[in-house]
Amino acid sequence: MPDHNGKYAWTATVGEKGQIVIPKQAREIFGIRPGDTLVLLGDLERGIAIPPKSSFAAYFRMAFGEEESK
């Protein structure tokens, strides 16, 4: 899929065990490697998001109400 200003879209099929395969191009672009742990964020109205690994700390602070260390 061509690059459109850093925006991408892929499809994935959910298997019988509820597993999905992240497309190769997506894994390469976002540096997802075998054994990595991903965070899935869900909202009934907006859907599911898989944020980049680099933002885990910020999402953790938001979820648990902790202030960013200065």
Brief rundown of the structure:
The chain has 70 residues and is of the alpha+beta class. It is built from 2 helices and 2 strands.
What does this 3D model show about the protein?
This protein is of the alpha+beta class and 70 residues long. The chain has helices at 24-30, 56-64; strands spanning 41-43, 47-49. A two-stranded antiparallel sheet has the order 1-2. The longest helix is centred in the C-terminal third of the chain and has 9 residues, at 56-64. The chain is globular. The relative contact order is 0.11.
Secondary-structure blueprint:
Blueprint: H1 24-30, E1 41-43, E2 47-49, H2 56-64
Antiparallel strand pairs: 1-2
pLDDT averaged residue by residue: 84
Assembly type: single chain
Could you tell me the strand content as a percent range? 5-15%
Give the class from helix and strand content and strand pairing: alpha+beta
Radius of gyration from the CA trace? 14 Å
Which percent range fits the helix content?
Answer: 10-25%
| E-strand count | 2
Shape type? globular
For the largest sheet, list the strands in their spatial order. 1-2
Q: What can be said about the biggest beta sheet?
A: 2 strands, antiparallel
What is the chain-wise order of helices and strands?
HEEH
Number of helices: 2
Q: Regions with pLDDT < 50 over 5+ consecutive residues?
A: none
Head-to-tail CA distance between termini: 40 Å
